[in-house]
Amino acid sequence: MTMPKVVITGTGAVCAAGMDPRTILQFVLAGKTAIAPIRQWDTTQWPTHLAGEIADLNPRALVPDRKLHKLIRRTDLVGLYAASQAIDASGFVAWRDALDPAAMAPYNDRTGAIVGSGGGNFQNQYDFFPLMTAANGDMHAFGRDLSDNVNPMWLLRTLPNNVLGHVGIQYNLKGTNACITNHSVGGTLAVIEAMEALRAGEADRVVAVGHETPIEPQMVLYYHRVGLLASEALRPFDAARDGSLFGEGAGALMLETAASAAARGAAVLGEVLGGGYVGEGQGLLAIRADGDGLARAIAMALEDAGLQPADVGMIVAHGNGTRQSDASEAAALRTVFGAAMPPVTGFKWAFGHLIAAAGILDTVLALEALKVNVVPGIATLHNLDEACAGVAVAAAPTVPRSNVALILCRGFAGTNAAVLVRAA
Amino acid sequence: MTAARRRVAVTGVGMVTPVGNDVVTTWNALLAGRSGGAPITLFDASGFSTCIAAEVKGFHPTLVEDRKLLKFANRSHRFALEAAEQALRDAGIRPTAADATRWGCAVGTGMMTADYDDLAQTHAHCGNSGEIDTDGLLTDGPANDPLVFCRGQAAEGLALLTRRFGIHGYATSVHTACASGGQAFGTALKLIRRGRVDRVLAGGFDSMISPIGISGFCLLSALSPDNATPQRASRPFDATRNGFLLGEGAGFVVLEEWEMARARGAHIYAELAGDGNSLSSYRITDSPPDGDGPIQSMHQALADAGAVPADVDYINAHGTSTGMNDRSESAAIRAVFGADAARVHVSSTKSTMGHLIAAAGAVEGVVCALAIARGEMPINANYRDRDPDCDLNLVLDVPQRQKVRMTMSNSFGFGGSNSCIVMRHPDEVDGRGPDGTKS
To answer: Which helix (H) or strand (E) holds B158?
Structure first.
């Protein structure tokens, strides 16, 4: 049995650096950063106040259906927006909708959606504060006065799987599906699971999405308290790096079997060649210094794709800017690539760490970069850290060694993912 | 194509449920239909339109006595650690340094973030105006406590399980509301088939019996308001059903590649044989009345298992006891099974233990494995009044005892995800019984 080839027929992205993949890449190539003082609340008194916020986010521009707005949150808006971009770009829905209605059903049943989502948040729970104030510690009054004080749709707004449900309803997708709430690797894992679903014949098309808007006060404070946030800038692999910074947004890819794309004459943007994913099992925040998990994930992805390290044209590193993650990532890269390392870059310095959306947005941007034959530089990099020696990063753009990109992604619970894509 | 495919065995089971903190106690309660419903004791729920639930009772993590680890565990994580330990002990195998990377972990996890007590503290400190005072957060206890942060992370359950049991392969947590547990089993099945891992600790855990969790469901009028009769509140498929009974808990299984399980002489409860997975794409909270969506997941699961409806002896229904779900699911079962719908035995064990939300599909998967291994099917408790829209062959009054060749477990979630899991009796796989002897 030969596995079907998995091709990419549409991409979508939104973050602080732009509202579509091309614009975001141009922003990154210009060496600019969209990380700026937080505007969603007053951080004058705060020990940390930087993030990559989407400025003047307009819900109606992201999701035209106004009825939806009271059922979903900011994170769902960006997720649905990126998903729509990818689906629209693929031309699939327009093609299906031109079919005879009776002929549509099999296409609906054979089109899936797999989403990486941030899971719970803290801010949504503050919706109960007016009720708690009114009840003044009296739980009986809390229960009695509940419906006078809290939006009846509160639970639905809180669902981590809203993007999955609503993208399904909007486009009438009824196939295989999942919502992965696995911290930062969620979006990357959505790509890997979509690829596997297509290979296994569970679907002919799957839209993969990752979305998250982590910039809320209590979340920012926790990340600061556990020492994960930078003071001034996100400087991956730099000797002076001191942490990460949040971004927000989403990325999406429309994946299809090559046969599905060919059958409707769709333009192919690239191919997902393989993936690898493992955990280190050291706890929520702990990671191994030797990069064991990431090295295993990369080796697995290469084997899965039937490629050698030398075939990789560029690497998009996780590069979150924390002391430990970057150093262990460098160790993993040295383990796999040794002295023959292709050009390495990362994107978080330009618009922040999008958590569940980070890896899939990086995948979308990697394709965009390969298309114009460039490895963007890391503009905040001044001095490569000794602990990151051998990692082929540069402040200025360079040229990829081939049209294959390796995208790396790491998350809480010691999880490590690697994806290989080839640009058309 | 299926000839070369790796098969998956269920070799260990564990449960912490509202009707028992272990497998045997839970199973006996399910056979007898001894409901876990009662007035809520975890907080004063007297003011809520529904003040009953199926709480896990008298629970103390006894198998995982790691106080440092438990500091990082919220209520649902403790259920998970306990049920997972039960499953690993039952399987008689656990990850070692040599094979840690060949073990995976796939869990369906709940959606709650901060515990209510922490939220109440934050409210008192910097939310009393009804709005959050963001500067006040800087001096708030819970908002600066890394333990509160860790316990509230969606990946924390996964982190605790993989650390505790030393699992270094594929590790994932999924959330599709009430379909989460079933989808975790489906994910685990695929991982072993792909050859990525040989063994998976798979399960689900949840606890929404808190002021916020109950609020969310009360606001949607999803819970049975039968506060005076909590033990009868959950009555799936009954004409008078009026909402679900909220439960909590965890269910876990150890899954192994079939030949490896046989080679080590493992007791095999069942083959995890097929997974079906669809989206209803209808409405966020409702299932389509005609069963569209669940029909596809059931068809897929059977096809994935290489089976037909005539092979199935037992369906553990999603059966939430809401008007909409039970009607839609009945329509789906009739559509898929046709004339066989009159023969296949159906029960919803939510009638006894309530709805465990993200853990439901996992616990009910365990129930199916037990039904096969023990040759008995738990009853659909509390059924009295026939609903012509739910015309199923329900297991009523006493357990149905017979050889169970194949089971099906349905789980449908808010958001429209439908999961269907099919299990097969071991001797239908290789002509050998659970213990490996020729039958």
So the answer is: helix B156-165
